[in-house]
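From the methods appendix. Each design record in this collection lists the tokenized structure first, followed by the designed amino acid sequence. Records were kept in a plain field format so they could be parsed without special tools. The example shown here is representative of the layout used throughout.

RECORD:
FOLD TOKENS (317 positions):
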């Protein structure tokens, strides 16, 4: 009808794209600072992933990645038929398992001990001394270990000899070499590993300790029934993360501490890959081993996370 006021057309709501554009524009400086990080990961992390295809090619350094012919899973069949490969896997699992069995509980114990220190100054000094070995290069650590554990001129063996005891072949006997390797790893990393647990311990409610104290609980009982249950989720998460790295091991420690006499236990996946990839220029085989190692680590991570959820924990995924 004429004379009637026309109803105003309802405004069209902004689309999700427009909202996103507005939000990005409002935080443009934050995204601008994020660009170098994204560029770093794109260039140095994601782009090189195409190199995984070398594991499925008969790689020729002169033809390059793109021109080298495809061979399917022939490279994997070749490495799986090699006894040295399975020996390296066994040694990797063995060293990681023994190191985890020793260092994991010790790290928790040291964290609890540091948490009980009342003096602030003494606590800081102690933490600094424990953190320091983490920043020492494995080259230096291997040099220190050689001076301490060498059979002929090692400090420990010289002391044993002076006491009339038999010398111990720490670096030339396979069993003693594993012991030396674990000791060096624990000494180097135990202090650094306490950081996460100490951070978790700061979040424990102090009123729980006060209530337990009023009920007559001893310090040890408070530790067992309050402290440990309060950080149980952190302990489980750290255990899962450590288990997920059972197929990975650093190159420095076994390469620098190892020698020809203990190759039966010191030859791990990282050193084996180094020898065939760098020294023997078998790039396809070394890439295939690295890919296999990553896949196994992912499988172990998922299995450990699933097990944690089955026993009532949150897991990490």
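DESIGN:
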């Amino acid at each position: 009808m004429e004379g009637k006021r026309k109803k105003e057309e309802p405004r069209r709501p902004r689309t999700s794209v427009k909202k996103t554009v507005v939000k990005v524009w409002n935080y443009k400086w934050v995204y601008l600072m994020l660009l170098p990080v994204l560029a770093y990961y794109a260039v140095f992390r994601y782009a090189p992933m195409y190199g995984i295809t070398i594991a499925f090619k008969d790689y020729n350094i002169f033809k390059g990645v793109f021109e080298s012919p495809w061979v399917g899973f022939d490279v994997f069949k070749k490495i799986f038929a090699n006894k040295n490969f399975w020996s390296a896997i066994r040694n990797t699992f063995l060293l990681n398992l023994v190191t985890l069995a020793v260092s994991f509980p010790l790290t928790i114990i040291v964290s609890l001990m540091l948490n009980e220190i009342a003096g602030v100054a003494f606590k800081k000094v102690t933490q600094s001394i424990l953190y320091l070995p983490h920043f020492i290069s494995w080259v230096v650590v291997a040099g220190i270990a050689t001076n301490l554990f060498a059979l002929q001129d090692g400090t420990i063996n010289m002391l044993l000899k002076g006491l009339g005891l038999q010398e111990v072949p720490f670096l030339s006997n396979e069993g003693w070499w594993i012991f030396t390797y674990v000791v060096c790893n624990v000494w180097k990393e135990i202090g650094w590993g306490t950081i996460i647990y100490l951070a978790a311990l700061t979040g424990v409610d102090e009123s729980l300790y006060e209530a337990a104290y009023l009920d007559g609980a001893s310090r040890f009982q408070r530790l067992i029934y309050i402290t440990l249950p309060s950080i149980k989720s952190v302990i489980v998460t750290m255990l899962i993360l450590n288990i997920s790295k059972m197929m990975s091991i650093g190159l420095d420690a076994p390469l620098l501490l190892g020698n020809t006499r203990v190759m039966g236990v010191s030859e791990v996946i990282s050193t084996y890959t180094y020898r065939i990839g760098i020294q023997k220029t078998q790039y396809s085989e070394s890439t295939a081993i690295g890919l296999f190692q990553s896949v196994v680590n992912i499988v172990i991570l998922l299995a450990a996370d699933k097990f944690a959820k089955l026993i009532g924990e949150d897991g990490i995924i």
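APPENDIX NOTE: Residues 17-67 form one domain.
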